[in-house]
Amino acid sequence: MIHYHKLGIVPPKPHITMYEEGKLLMEQCFTRQGFEGPYSTLYFREPPTDECAVEKLAIPGFCPFEPLAEQPLYRRHIRTQELKASGDFLDARRVLMFNSDIQMSMVKPTVSSPRFFTNGDGDECYFVYKGSGRLESMFGVLSFREHDYILIPRGTPYRFQFDNADNELFAFEGTGWIDVPNEWRNNHGQITDYAPYSHRDFRIPESLLAYSEATHGKAPHKLVVKRDNTLTVHQFDHFPHDVAGWDGSVYPVAFNIHDYQPKTATVHLPPTIHITFAGNEFVICSFVPRKVDYYDKDGLKAIPCPYGHASVHMDEILFYVAGNFTSRKGIDSGSISLHPAGIPHGPHPGTYEGSIGHERSSELAVMCDTYKKLHLTTVAHDLEDKDYHMTWLQKEGG
Ligand SMILES: [Fe+2]
After folding, report:
1. Is the pTM of this model over 0.85?
2. If you measure from the C-alpha of residue 4 to the centroid of ligand 1, how many angstroms do you get, rounded to a whole number?
3. The pLDDT value given to residue 180
């Protein structure tokens, strides 16, 4: 939830008659936390409830995914670069890591989707590593571009339409919720002036979804729904996302990571200063190019490279996007590192000392810290650099 918005036509009050060209529109209240939380109210040209068929669907690697049977305690390096691209945004989705609060997936679609999808299990946050296009939902059309985060509230029917075939999305699914954290809001819900972004940085659906047979096809129209990690396909003999107007505070938004305003201090700040979004028992953080720590007094200088740390309550993943990853060796753009609780982690040999005197960092990365242990899937294990855990070992001549 970002702020109140209205698009298209709505009546002067909720729950009263609303006609378009003499036809009564069907109101739908889209509510969170029962009727206590944020909500939006939509006006449909055709009821979104009259399905004509329901059938089961399986997409191996997504629903269902296969957990790795045994997971010894290692630092992990998952090379998403090796994952094959194919299909639409559902066929291409592969769960890499999960716990009861979150699932993280890599999605490499090559084609736009003919079908819509509703995630009934949780909010989603996509990071667009590569690609651009339009997110179509019942709230309208939201354009997206490379390095956008796209937040999609649970229960929203949507689909991705891409500009070309080269698309890579890193997807977080939060069982509870994903939103701007409370620490970046005041008591009235407004984003504070000291937050790393403002309301103006969030983009919202710019136009309503106009049904056309050319772009949305003929009936039956298909909506894939995920609930309890099971997929069902719901069919309609009319286009079920045809909305004349809506208003409220729940709808998809996009935020580009390059609009994130990083914080820097005299000495190194903990990674929590980079929090961008929060969920139930996890946070998503943005590392963007920035000036680094600048303590310089009596011959003593700040060390800009992260210190070694044992964050004993959290597993940590980093998705590396671009720039110079100062603390890690052997990591490329598209790599994911998993540093689990139970053992400490820190910069690779040489990088700690080497960072002294640096004035800027060019790294661009997305981090996620989770309170509960992250389990790997067999897909993630197949993509692993199995030597990563031992790469901190100082070798002669190395
Ligand atoms: Fe860390």
Report:
1. yes
2. 36
3. 97
